[in-house]
Each structure stands twice: as C-alpha cells, then as structure tokens.
Write a structure and sequence with these properties.
The chain has eight helices and seven strands. It is α+β, with helices and mostly antiparallel strands. The longest helix has 17 residues. It is globular, with a radius of gyration of 19 Å. The two termini are 27 Å apart.
C-alpha cells in the first residue's frame, strides 16, 4: 500500500495550495477561517475565479469545464481548498444540478445552463424536500407547458437563487410512486412562485419554503425523460454525498 504522494502528486498539491492562497482574496478566506459565512458576493466571486482557472467543476465532463483528474487529485483539490479557507463551489450548481444536466439533459439545456452554472451566473436551489416527507408537488402537461402546483421545504439559500430544480409528480397513477416523478427546471421569478423564509433555532434564515401556484414552465425544461426523475435524483444525491466530507476544514479547525 502506497501511503505517500508521488512526486507528481506532491507537485499538484503545491500547485493547488499556491493558487488557493494567492488568487482567492484574503478577506474572503479570513471570513471562512474565523468560522463565518461568506456573503453571496464572496461566494460568486470565488467561484468565478476558480472557474476562470478551470478549478470550479473538475467533476464535470471535460467538454463542459471538468478535469480528467484521478480520484486522488480530486481529493487533494478538495482538501487544499478547505485548508486555505476557500469557499467551496456552490454545491447546488457544481455537485447537484450541473452533473444531472451534463449527463441527462438535452444539448440545448447543456448549452444554455452549464456554462452559466459553472460560473455561478445562475444560482440554483434544490426543490426536493416537502413538509410531510411525501412528494406531492405535481406537474401537469398543458400544451407546450408544464403547470406546477405544490410546496417545497428546507430550500437552502433559496433567497439567493435564480432557478430551482424541482422533483414533481407527473404520473400519480404509476404502479410504483418512484416511477411517476419528473425532474423539471423552474425560474424563481416565474409567476406563481413564492418564497417564505424559515427561521432556524440559531435565529438565522438559511432555509426557506417555496410555493408553486399554477406555475407555468416550458416543456423543454423537463430534464431527460418524463417520469424518470427519481433515477436522476439518485444520481444527484450520489454526487452530493461524495463531496460533503470536510477533511480539509476539519484539519484547519483542529490546527
């Protein structure tokens, strides 16, 4: 078993460390190191610096800004970013909806959304959870539109979001409930979308409820196949879970 980095891997670590500690503004990194929450502007600025250098979405296909790295290089990138106090690329964009669109979206969706998603020109939020832990938000096809009605809960940072990716029930008669769900993209400023902040026990408002009342979105905002959304959601959650271990941040805090 090889426990030491190779010369190439050591050089890669130094490259990442130098970039993160010299290219990301010190005031942003100081906020993170002190345990604070960087502002929306700081998060956007950081991701745009990373994206310009090809370091925002290394897990994506190379043609859309990804890097053909080894798993160990991905780990080094992730760890050194946290050690330096750099805000991580926005998870909703980099680890969730971006890979879904890249793998299952139409060519038009890829061209429209992926560059803006990588550069955080679009801020995404997640429309999965519901108040009673049962997916009741529904979307009905009406001509060239989907009409969405329902409610989502615990929508993290939805107050900043431009778009939301929504799991909707599109076939209530499906034999298995998981088979009747679709993955639909919806602008947060669409008529009929209402956001209500939820106060947490610490007094903050990181999460929100999102209400959909006869919200119309174009049919082309459906990702992949109708009623296949649960498969895309499982793919999304797999990407999300792989990236949540804060090894570098834990080392920094302990130090």
């Amino acid at each position: 078993m090889q426990l030491a980095l190779s010369e190439e891997e050591t050089a890669f670590r130094e490259e990442m460390r130098t970039f993160f500690t010299t290219k990301i503004p010190q005031e942003i990194r100081d906020t993170v190191a002190a345990g604070g929450h960087p502002s929306k502007d700081a998060i956007v600025r950081t991701q745009q610096i990373l994206n310009e250098a090809g370091l925002a979405v290394p897990n994506w296909p190379v043609e859309w800004g990804g890097q053909d790295w080894t798993p160990l290089q991905r780990h080094i990138w992730h760890e050194e970013m946290q050690l330096a106090g750099v805000p991580l690329p926005l998870a909703f964009n980099a680890n969730m909806v971006g890979p879904v669109i890249a793998n299952f979206g139409s060519q038009e969706q890829k061209e429209k959304f992926l560059p803006a998603t990588a550069n955080l020109d679009i801020w995404w939020c997640q429309g999965f959870s519901e108040p009673e832990a049962s997916l009741r938000t529904k979307a009905v096809r009406d001509g060239d539109d989907w009409v969405i009605n329902g409610q989502k809960a615990w929508t993290t940072l939805g107050q900043h979001a431009d778009w939301i990716f929504v799991l909707c029930r599109t076939d209530p008669e499906a034999e298995r409930k998981q088979k009747g769900i679709s993955f639909i993209l919806c602008p947060m400023d669409a008529e009929g979308v209402t956001l209500r902040p939820t106060q947490l026990i610490d007094g903050g408002y990181e999460v929100n409820e999102v209400f959909f009342e006869d919200v119309r979105v174009p049919a082309e905002n459906l990702v992949g196949e109708e009623n296949a959304g649960w498969s895309y959601a499982k793919f999304l959650l797999g990407n999300e879970r792989v990236g949540v271990a804060p090894v570098g941040a834990t080392k920094r805090v302990l130090a």
